[in-house]
Amino acid sequence: MMTVTRRLHLLMTTLALLAMSGAGLAEDGYDLWLRYAPLPAAVADKVSAQARTVTVGQPLTPALAAARDELRLGLSRMTGSSPVLAESTGESQAPREGDIVIGTFGDSQWLSALDLPADDIGPEGYLVRTIAAKDGRYTVIAGHDERGVVYGVFALLRHLQAGGGMAGLDLSDTPRVKLRLLNHWDNLDRYVERGYAGQSIWDWWRLPNIVDPRYTDYARANASIGINGTVLNNVNAAAEVLTPRYIAKAAKLADIFRPWGIQVYLSARWSAPRDIGGLDTADPLDPDVRRWWREKADEIYAAIPDFGGFLVKANSEGQPGPREYGRSHADGANMLAAAVAPHGGVVMWRAFVYSETDPEDRVRQAYTEFKPLDGEFADNVLVQVKNGPLDFQPREPFHPMFGGMPETPLMMEFQVTKEYLGFSTHLVYLGALWEEVLDADTWADGQGSTVAKVVDGRLHGHELTGMAGVANIGRDRDWSGSDFDQANWYAFGRLAWNPELSSRDIAKEWLRQTFSTDPAFVDGAADLMMRSREAVVDYMTPLGLTHIMGTGHHYGPAPWVDDLGRPEWNPVYYHHAGPDGIGFDRTASGSNAVEQYHGPVGERFGDLATVPDEYLLWFHRLPWDHEMADGKTLWESLVAHYDHGVKEAEAMREAWLSLGKHVDETRRDRVADFLDVQVAEARWWRNACLAYFQDRAGLDWPAGVQPPPHSLEHYQSLEFPYAPGN
Ligand code: BDP
C-alpha cells in the first residue's frame, strides 16, 4: 500500500510536471505521442527503481543534454518521480543499481569499457541494454553518434509508454534511409499551401529574435520518430528566403533543431540569380550564375554550418528552370550540387514535371524526361519522385521511375497532408497507402525488387538515400488539424526510418502512446485505421479512377469538370466517361504507359485478365457492360464500390463510438464529430459521382440501389471559394 505522504508526493509531482510541460488537463493533442501518461502504480514503481539517476557518460553536449532532459521528462511524467541528473566526472566510475547511462561509444569511458555489440548498429543507430554488473543492474543507452543516443532515449520512452518494463532491455535499431525529411509547403507570409492545420508554425516575421517554444517541441516530436531534416519553405519558393534577412531566420531554427539531430534545408527558386541576384540570366552553364550560387551557398553555410542543401521544383507548373535555357534537369541539378558539395550538402531535384504543351499522357512525362538522364547526376544529387506517377492520389500504381533509374538515388516523396484525401476532417491512415507502395515489386532486378529496396538503396547499391513527407503541420493546437492526422506524421517518420515496417504495427505503436494501451482498444482502433484507406478510395476514386476532385482546392467531387486551361488539369481527362465506357487506355493500344514498367509488371497491368481491380480504369478503357470477375458489370461494380465506401465510413464511425470508452471525453467527442463530417462527405462523394457517371453512361440504376437524392445540376452547382490550402 502506498502511504498518504507518498501519494501526495506523487500528485504534487504530477501536477508540477504537467504545469512544467504546458500540458493542460484536457487532452488537446499538443503533446502528440509524447504524452508520457502516468503508468499503473505497480509498473511505475518498478520503472523508477531502475531509473534513479540519469548520467551522461561524457562531456555534456547540447544533444546529450537534450536526450537527458527528454528522458527525465518522460520518466517523471510516467512514474511520478524524477530521476537525479548526473554528469560524468571524467573518471571511470562504475554505474550502480538503477542508473541509466547515456553516451556515444567512442567518447564515453564507461561505454567503451563495456564491450557492447557496437558493430551491430550503424550510423544513427542505437542500443538500449540492461547490464547486470556485480553492484546491480543498470541501463545503457548508446550510439556511435549523438543522434543515435537521442533515438535510443526515444526508443526507451516508446517502449515504456507502450507498457514495456525496464528489465532485460535489449532494444537496438539503425535507420535504413539516410535523409528522413519533412517538406513544409509553407510560404513566408505563413500561408501553408495544401495546409489544413492552420498557418505555418514558422513565424518568419518575428524570427530570429522571437522564438516560439513550439520550435523545440517540433524538433522533439520529429526526433522521436527519426526525422533528421526539414525543408522549411514551399517548393513553389520565394527567392527572398535566400536573402541575408531570411538566412538569419533559418539559422535560428537550425540552432534550435541541431541538438535534436535535425538539419535545415531550403527550397530554392531556380531564378534566384535573376530575382534577387541582379543577374539577367539563370542559365546553369553561365559562369556568373555558377559563381552566384557558389557564393550563396558559402553565405548560407557561414550561418548554418550543417545546412542540409536545396530542394528544387523546376520547370514544373510554371516554376522557372534550366529548360528555359535549353539545359537539362541534370545540368540544373549538377550546377547547384557543385555549389553545396564543398560543404557536404545535397540537392534534391524534384521529378514532378509535366507540360501543357506536351500531348504525351501526363503520367508518362516524368519518366520520359528523366530516364535518359540516369547516370548524369552528380554524386550529391537525389531525384525526388512523387508517389505516384500522377499526383498523391488516394490510389495510384507506383511510379515507374522507381526501378527505372538504377544509376540515380531516388528519393520517395509522400504527401502527409491530405490534399486529395478529405483534408484534415477525414480519418484516413496513410500508413496503409504508403506500405502498399513501398511493398510494390518493380521487378527491376527480378522478383522482390520492391520500391522499399529502391528507396533504401539496397537494390542498386546507393549510400545516399532519402524519403520526404509533405508535412501536415500547422499552428493548430494539435499540430495536424485532427487527432488521427498525427498518426500520419508518425507513420511517415517510422517508414522513413525503415520502409519495411508494417503499417499496422506502426498504428498500434502510435495508438498505445497517443490514447491507451488497452489491447481491446489498440486492436480495434488499428483495424479502424487500416480499413480507412480502402474506404476513402471506394467513396472517392474506386477501380482506378483518379483526380476527380474539385478544381483548385481539390475539395469534394467534381468529375465533370472539362473547361480548365490545361487538358490534364481537367478531371474528364482521366476517365472520359461517355456512353461507350470509362477509363484511360494506357495499354499498347493507348498511351502505352505500361511500357515504362519492367516486363512482368507492365504485362500484368496491361492485360485485362491480370490487372488488379484497384488499377482497372487507370490502365484500361472499358465498356460499361464489361464483366468483372464476380460477374457484375463494370457499372454495377462501380456503384457497389461507392456504396461500400459509404458503408465503411459509417462503420468506422460506429466502431469509434464503441472504442471511445477507452479514450478521454475530449478526444473521443472530437474524433466522433470529425467522423460525422466524413460520413456526410462520403455520401456526398458517392452521390455526386454516381449522379454524373449515370448521366454519362445513360444506364439505369442497378436493382436495389438508392439513386442520389439530388440532381446532377445540384452537385455541379456547389462552390467552395474559401476552401483552405488553395
Ligand atoms: C500539386 C499541388 C500543388 C503543388 C504541386 C507540387 O496541388 O499545390 O505545388 O503538387 O507538388 O499536387 O509541386
Structural key phrases:
3 domains, 11% strand, Alpha-d-glucuronidase, C-terminal Domain, Chitobiase, domain 2, 6-stranded mixed sheet, alpha/beta, TIM Barrel, globular
Structure, briefly:
Helix content is 38%, strand content 11%. The protein has 726 residues and is of the alpha/beta class. The protein binds beta-D-glucopyranuronic acid (BDP).
Can you describe what's shown?
The protein is an alpha/beta fold and 726 residues long. It folds into three domains: 137 residues, Chitobiase, domain 2 (2-Layer Sandwich), CATH 3.30.379; 335 residues, TIM Barrel, CATH 3.20.20; 145 residues, Alpha-d-glucuronidase, C-terminal Domain, CATH 3.90.1330.10. The chain is built from 22 helices and 16 strands. The N terminus is likely disordered. The site of beta-D-glucopyranuronic acid (BDP) has 10 residues, from loops.
